[in-house]
Amino acid sequence: MTRRGLLIVNTGNGKGKTTAALGLAFRALGHGLRVCMIQFIKGKWNYGELKAARRFEDLMEIHTLGAGFTWESENLGRDTRIAREAWDFAKQTIAQARHDLIILDELTYLIAYGMIDEAEVVGVLKARPKAIHVVVTGRNASPGLIEAADLATDMQSVKHPFDDGLEAQRGIEY
Ligand code: ATP
Ligand code: MG
Questions:
Q1: SS3 assignment for 75-122
Q2: Which residue owns the Cα nearest ligand 1 atom 17?
Q3: Residues 89-117 pLDDT 10s
Q4: What is the pLDDT of residue 42?
Q5: Per residue in 54-70, pLDDT tens?
Q6: What is the phi-psi region of residue 147: left when phi exceeds 0, alpha when psi lies from -120 to 50, beta otherwise?
Q7: Rounded distance, CA 145 to CA 139, Å?
Q8: Quick check: is 13 catalytic?
């Protein structure tokens, strides 16, 4: 069977966009597929997956790029430059076709905040090597991205422990 790479979008306000992508990574790794995750927003909470990825040695890599997002106008130029560099890295990674599954974690924010053009993102994703599966995560996925996707899931929040003032739990949030 010739593989047809899928474009998958996990969006919405509920929890689970990044964790669902990591669940797919786990499934793919089980088949010996090579996985690359690029995190566009530098989070404080990604230690768990970074540690776990090392256990898969050459099959899985995670690159934490991008700024922490400050939203102060004086830093916006800097954040935009860092975001563009991260996107350039993603483009190169896709073109190299060294992976079977590429996760572009929180990429939607770069489009939502006008740091990169939706048309460019969609163009690059559509023109990717045919066999590569790509997962894009993040809130507020733009219509063009959804249109281009083969699979899009909207995570809806029903309840979240933060609403009850519960602090982030190790292994669940990070
Ligand atoms: P996760 O990485 O846990 O799968 P996510 O990728 O769906 O979460 P993001 O939009 O990337 O969510 O935001 C990450 C942070 O926002 C996480 O700490 C997550 O728990 C929190 N979060 C997600 N949904 C909600 C919600 N409905 N209310 C409050 N916080 C939320
Ligand atoms: Mg996320």
A1: HHHHHHHHHHHHHHHHHHHHHHCCCCEEEEECHHHHHHCCCCCHHHHH
A2: 173
A3: 999 999 999 999 999 999 999 999 999 99
A4: 75
A5: 999 899 999 999 776 65
A6: alpha
A7: 12
A8: yes
Ligand 1 test: best mutation among 10, 13, 15, most atoms within 8 Å of CB? 15
Domains of the chain, by residue range, sit at 7-156
Tokens linked to 116: 């990169």
Nearest one of 142, 105, 90 to 16, comparing CA atoms: 105
- Give the β-pairing of 7-11 and 151-154: parallel
pTM of the prediction? 0.95
CATH of 7-156, picked from 3.30.70.360, 3.40.50.300, 1.20.1250.20, 3.30.1490.20, is: 3.40.50.300
CA 139 vs CA 55, 107, 110: distances in Å: 29, 9, 11
Mean pLDDT value across the chain: 93
Q: Which atom of ligand 1 is nearest to the CA of 41?
A: 11
Tokens of 23: 């669940």
Which residue is closest in CA terms to ligand 1's atom 20?
Answer: 15
Task: Give 33-52 pLDDT, tens digit per residue.
Answer: 999 999 998 777 778 999 99
